[in-house]
Amino acid sequence: MEIEDVYLKTVFKYKDKVFDFYHGWGFVKHFTIETIDDIETVHVFVKFQNKIVKYNANGSIIDLAFKKPLLNPTLSFTEYTLQGFSQERTMKTHRIKHDARE
């Protein structure tokens, strides 16, 4: 699968600034594609202050113990509380400048 195909399967793009209620602000670091039984699954990796967290294409955290996504997406382009959540891009959606050392 080409990178252009990855972008068709997820709203998230490389270096997007994103928010997760559990981890705060971070940025999309990279993607991987896993193929099981001829089904391709896109994983999105987000760099937060002290960790990298794995999500599926719709922004749900992948539970590493069970290797399955949690039920609801938590990755967003805007900061939210438990009262609201959105994955709609705003006019002010930012990309983070990439540091080659990360």
Could you explain how this protein is built, in words?
With 102 residues, this protein is mainly beta. Helix content is 7%, strand content 36%. The chain is built from one helix and seven strands; from the N terminus they run αβββββββ. It has one helix at residues 3-9; strands spanning 17-20, 24-36, 39-47, 52-56, 62-63, 68-69, 75-76. A five-stranded antiparallel β-sheet has the order 4-3-2-1-7, with no helix packed on it. The protein has a two-stranded antiparallel sheet with strand order 5-6. The longest helix has 7 residues, at 3-9. The protein is globular, with a radius of gyration of 13 Å.
Notable traits:
102 residues; 36% strand; mainly beta; 7% helix; five-stranded antiparallel beta sheet
What's this model, at a glance?
This protein has one helix at residues 3-9, and strands at residues 17-20, 24-36, 39-47, 52-56, 62-63, 68-69, 75-76. The protein is mainly beta.
Detail the topology: elements first, then pairings.
Elements (H helix, E strand, L loop, with lengths): L2 H7 L7 E4 L3 E13 L2 E9 L4 E5 L5 E2 L4 E2 L5 E2 L26
Antiparallel strand pairs: 1-2, 1-7, 2-3, 3-4, 5-6
